[in-house]
């Protein structure tokens, strides 16, 4: 296949989650490189780019009295087949296997051979680590993976887990996540003022969907251990309901330290204002949030789980503590809060690592090469 621009369908969840964010940013980068990108989902993805060569095809789900649970997989597969046929897609790249990889398989089965796009499935995390263990999903995920033209995972950890939990024997390519910061729309001082940070006060940042596996209990336990020796505000960019977090903060007497922002789109505003990231997940396949902070030169402290040690190197670009050890995590955070020189050195190394390993310039050509490789097959 020549180097002509490709027509790429992208399916992801449009809600605030790492896989959807990654898929949106991948679409933005591909369109900027001249490819045509077709998003297919029930809503426009949260960070879907606007601009030439980017299209959105909504999946409409009707409700029928007969069905207790509305079905998304079939209308999605029909829309995938329709977009593939009408736009001559070369590739359907699905993010998060359930149900997108199965819907892609069905879509291809509906099309004559010459209209079938190649299917690439990227596994992001809980599609394997949670649903892969569920007997009601596992076999369907394995089946869809076996019928994908290529499988990628966002970390080596995820690749190992996919083999272990789903017994996938096909080659799996690890293509790490990337992040390409946009210029922050607002100056750092304005942001810090708006967030209520006094002079000399530190800004800790956490961003996630606040789901159970982010372990908000451990997060608040760690933050509570810091108070009141350090002057800080704890800013949370919530991609899910902050009710539990606020209750946990009140229970621990640190409600006055917490600033919550929801559905933030200009994330760079907050990233550039932060002094330290803090994460307490019990598992992560990658942790895009740590990378986002690294890209702006901010180190994080986190538990040493899943793919996190592939992203940040403990002692070099951040600090990691054993899972559940909130005392060690708080001590790590305090050591950086009280040492601006070390914090800056880790932040600089973090930014360099983000650029050298996890930037669009490094990662996008890997996806492009994979698309062209499957198209040649
Ligand atoms: O659980 C989440 O945080 C959301 C989830 C998703 O699929 O949107 O995140 C997963 O994918 C992200 C992007 O690849 C990774 O950075 C997250 O680590 C991963 N989450 C888990 O594995 C728990």
Q: What report would you give on this structure?
A:
Helix content is 41%, strand content 17%. It has 15 helices and 13 strands. A seven-stranded parallel beta sheet has the order 3-2-1-4-5-6-7, with helices on both faces. The protein has a six-stranded parallel beta sheet with strand order 10-9-8-11-12-13, with helices on both faces. It is globular and about 65 Å long. With 377 residues, the chain is of the alpha/beta class. The chain has two domains: 7-178 and 359-376, Glycogen Phosphorylase B (Rossmann fold, 3-Layer(aba) Sandwich); 188-357, Glycogen Phosphorylase B (Rossmann fold, 3-Layer(aba) Sandwich), CATH 3.40.50. Bound molecules: ligand GMT. Ligand GMT binds at residues 17-20, 22, 96, 124-126, 154, 177, 208-209, 211, 213, 283-288.
CATH topology assignment of the largest domain = Rossmann fold
- Rg over alpha carbons: 21 Å
CATH class placement of the largest domain: Alpha Beta
CATH architecture label name of the largest domain = 3-Layer(aba) Sandwich
Give me the secondary-structure category: alpha/beta
What hetero molecules are bound to the protein chains?
ligand GMT
Unreliable parts:
none
The separation of the N and C termini measures 10 Å
Largest sheet: 7 strands, parallel
Order of helices and strands: EHEEHEHEHHEHEHEHEHEHEHEHEHHH
Helix content: 40-55%
**Could you tell me the number of beta strands?**
13
- The chain-level mean pLDDT equals 95
Q: What's the CATH H-level superfamily name of the largest domain?
A: Glycogen Phosphorylase B
Count of individual helical segments: 15
What overall form do the CA principal axes indicate?
Answer: globular
Strand order of the largest sheet: 3-2-1-4-5-6-7
**Which range does the strand content fall in?**
15-25%
Oligomer: single chain
Count of discrete structural domains: 2
């Amino acid at each position: 296949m020549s180097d002509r621009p490709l027509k790429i369908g992208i399916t992801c969840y449009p809600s605030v989650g790492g896989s959807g964010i990654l898929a949106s940013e991948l679409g933005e980068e591909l369109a900027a490189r001249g490819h045509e990108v077709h998003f297919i989902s029930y809503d426009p993805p949260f960070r879907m780019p606007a601009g030439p060569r980017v299209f959105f095809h909504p999946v409409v789900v009707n409700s029928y009295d007969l069905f207790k649970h509305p079905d998304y997989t079939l209308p999605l597969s029909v829309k995938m087949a329709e977009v593939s046929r009408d736009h001559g897609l070369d590739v359907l790249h699905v993010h998060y296997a359930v149900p997108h990889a199965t819907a892609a398989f069905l879509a291809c089965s509906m099309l004559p051979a010459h209209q079938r796009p190649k299917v690439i499935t990227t596994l992001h995390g809980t599609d394997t680590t949670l649903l892969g263990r569920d007997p009601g999903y596992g076999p369907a995920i394995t089946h869809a993976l076996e019928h994908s033209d290529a499988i990628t995972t966002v970390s080596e950890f995820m690749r190992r887990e996919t083999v272990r939990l789903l017994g996938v024997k096909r080659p799996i390519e690890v293509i790490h996540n990337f992040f390409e910061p946009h210029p922050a729309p607002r100056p750092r001082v304005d942001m810090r003022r708006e967030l209520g940070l006094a002079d000399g006060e530190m800004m800790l940042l956490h961003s996630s969907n606040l789901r159970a596996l982010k372990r908000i209990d451990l997060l608040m336990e760690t933050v509570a251990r810091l108070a009141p020796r350090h002057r800080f505000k704890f800013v949370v960019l919530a991609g899910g309901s902050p009710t539990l977090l606020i209750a946990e903060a009140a229970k621990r007497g640190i409600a006055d330290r917490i600033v919550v922002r929801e559905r933030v789109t200009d994330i760079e505003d907050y990233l550039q204002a932060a002094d330290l990231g803090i994460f307490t997940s019990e598992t992560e396949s990658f942790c895009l949030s740590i990378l986002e902070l690294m890209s702006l030169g901010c180190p994080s402290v986190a538990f040493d789980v899943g793919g996190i040690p592939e992203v940040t190197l403990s002692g070099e670009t951040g600090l990691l503590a054993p899972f559940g050890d909130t005392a060690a995590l708080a001590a790590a955070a305090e050591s950086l809060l009280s040492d601006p020189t070390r914090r800056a050195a880790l932040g600089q190394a973090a930014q360099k690592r983000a650029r050298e390993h996890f930037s669009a310039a490094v990662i996008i050509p890997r996806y492009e090469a994979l698309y062209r490789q499957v198209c040649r097959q």
